[in-house]
Amino acid sequence: MAFRLIPRDIKFFDLFTADGDNLATAAERLAELVDHYDRLDQRIAEIQGLEKRGDEIDREINSRLEDAFVTPFDREDIHELVSRLDDVVDGIQSIAEAFVIYGVKEPTPEARRLAAILDGQGSELAAALRKFDGMKDLEGHFAAVHQLEKEADGLSRAAMARLFHDELAVIEVIKWRDLYTYLEDTIDAAEDAAEAMERMYHKAN
Questions:
Q1: Successive 10-residue mean pLDDT values, the chain, 205 residues
Q2: What is the DSSP letter of 7?
Q3: What letters, b where the CB count within 10 A reaches 16 and e where it falls short, cover 102-141?
Q4: Could you tell me the domains of the chain?
Q5: What is the C-alpha to C-alpha distance for residues 191 and 126, in angstroms, rounded to an integer?
Q6: Taking the CB of residue 183, how many other CB atoms lie within 10 A of it?
Q7: d(CA 70, CA 81)
Q8: Most buried by CB count within 10 Å: which residue of 14, 135, 167, 174?
Q9: What secondary structure does DSSP assign to 162-174, as a single string?
Q10: d(C-alpha 61, C-alpha 19), whole Å
């Protein structure tokens, strides 16, 4: 029976886990911000700190890639995964800041649900990355990320349609159209991260 042994570089896997946990925390903080909608400056500062921490982890992974003779996965695959995870955290920061920049008084129910969907995806990505060392039992996490993205698709379309049927002021339509787009794009980015992990998973099994 043919099989592939994954080189065990514990530091790489620790960094993958740290990157996933940092992303999940950022997504959780965004969901809390949108759900409670108070102490915005403090909440956004915390998310900004998590984005900086994610950049530090990414730099450490990339530095280790340059120095390592053997890596647990193809270097290009690791680069892509790190980039996709970074896209999610960057998107989370942009969404949080946009709520203040756009002067949002109160998030809509759709915005709260989209933030909760992103929070759920973050938890699934982090759980999968914690299992990356053994490359077992990951399919359920990938499926959950994809299912959440499908829910977000339908919710985003309905939310956009409602904007143009509720006779809102033009500035409110533009504001919420952009915010829904930022949320949907970041949810899509989380799915892209899951797909990058899936490709690595299939190569390893």
A1: 48 94 98 98 98 97 87 92 98 98 96 98 98 92 98 96 84 94 98 97 87
A2: P
A3: eebeebbebbebbbbbbbbbbbbbbbbbebbbebeebeeb
A4: 10-204 (1.20.58.220)
A5: 13
A6: 27
A7: 18
A8: 135
A9: HHTTTT--HHHHH
A10: 10
